[in-house]
Amino acid sequence: MEARTEGAKELILAVFRLAVADYLGRSYSYDGVVPIRAGPKRFRSDAEIFLLSAWAGYLAEMIGISSEAVWGEARLRLDTNQSTPAQGKAA
After folding, report:
1. How many other CB atoms sit within 10 Å of the CB of residue 46?
2. What CA–CA distance (Å, rounded) separates 48 from 64?
């Protein structure tokens, strides 16, 4: 794959990673594996709007992924995180 094409694909993937992290209220780091930290939840609605938008569908199609699958996984992870009791607290 041409370097410019690969770079564009990585950039689009980073946009989706950031949107999902914002939706989940988690910090996002593009520098590799880092501990998951709670981040601000104030961007959740903006992230949801993006993930459901035609732009998300268009960008996902450009790199061969499904925006519907990304949105479904984000919702599933949010539901799983919200239904899990906090550490150290009784269920």
Report:
1. 12
2. 21
Query: In this predicted model, what pLDDT tens digit does every residue of 34-63 receive, in sequence order?
Result: 666 776 677 788 999 999 999 999 999 999
Model-level pTM? 0.76
Residue 60, judged by CB atoms within 10 A of its CB (0-12, 13-18, 19+), counts as buried
Contact indicator for 50, 56 with CB cutoff of 8 Å: yes
User: Could you tell me which residues come within 8 angstroms of residue 18 by beta carbon, excluding any fewer than 6 positions away?
Assistant: 28
Q: Which DSSP string corresponds to the chain? A: --HHHHHHHHHHHHHHHHHHHHHHTB---SSS-----B--STTHHHHHHHHTSHHHHHHHHHHT--HHHHHHHHHHHHHHHHHSPPTTS--
